[in-house]
Design a protein that fits this description.
By secondary structure, the chain is mainly alpha-helical. It has one domain. It is built from six helices and no strands. 39% of the residues are buried.
Length: 165
């Protein structure tokens, strides 16, 4: 049973890292779920304080994930159409065989969204850039938190494995 729980926790950690890039998965929250599953294995000690603090932090990052792109978009004069275009561009960029699609897709999507909202290319380009910067900042933040949670996972698991010897 313990190996099963460790495998589930590892799967959640990997999904958490992927969720940093995929808009359908809440990256840090999924990684935190991996830490929670690890907590229920025999011999791995994660304090309740650690679990609560890391959960609050994951929820905070989850909320920021919606605020940061909006700030970037609004700061550069963007609209809701630009934010929607960014998300659609990300999905298309992930699914397309284009190199660096995850980077190109959100920018092009934001630009198309802004062009649909207003016909001024220069304003649309500026707003698309703001939307893109917000998306990149948000994604980077989620990725860093998911990697930190993976680090906690590895340390706790290695401490547990060291006690087996």
């Amino acid at each position: 049973m313990e190996i099963f729980l460790v495998c589930i926790a590892l799967l959640l950690m990997i999904l958490g890292i992927l969720g940093s890039f995929l808009p359908v998965l809440p990256g840090p929250l999924t990684s935190w779920a991996g830490l929670l599953v690890l907590h229920f294995t025999e011999g791995v000690e994660l304090s309740h304080t650690f679990l609560i603090v890391s959960l609050v932090f994951a929820v905070f990052i989850y909320v920021l994930d919606y605020i940061i792109p909006a700030i970037g978009t609004k700061r550069f004069g963007g609209s809701r159409a630009g934010m929607i275009g960014t998300t659609l561009g990300l999905i298309i960029g992930l699914l397309s065989p284009i190199p660096f699609g995850i980077i190109i897709g959100p920018f092009v999507g934001a630009l198309i969204g802004e062009m649909m909202h207003r016909n001024d290319f220069n304003k649309a380009l500026k707003a698309a850039f703001g939307s893109f910067l917000g998306f990149i900042a948000s994604t980077f933040l989620k990725f860093i938190v998911a990697i930190i949670y993976l680090g906690f996972f590895i340390v706790k698991l290695s401490e547990h494995n060291a006690s087996w010897y």
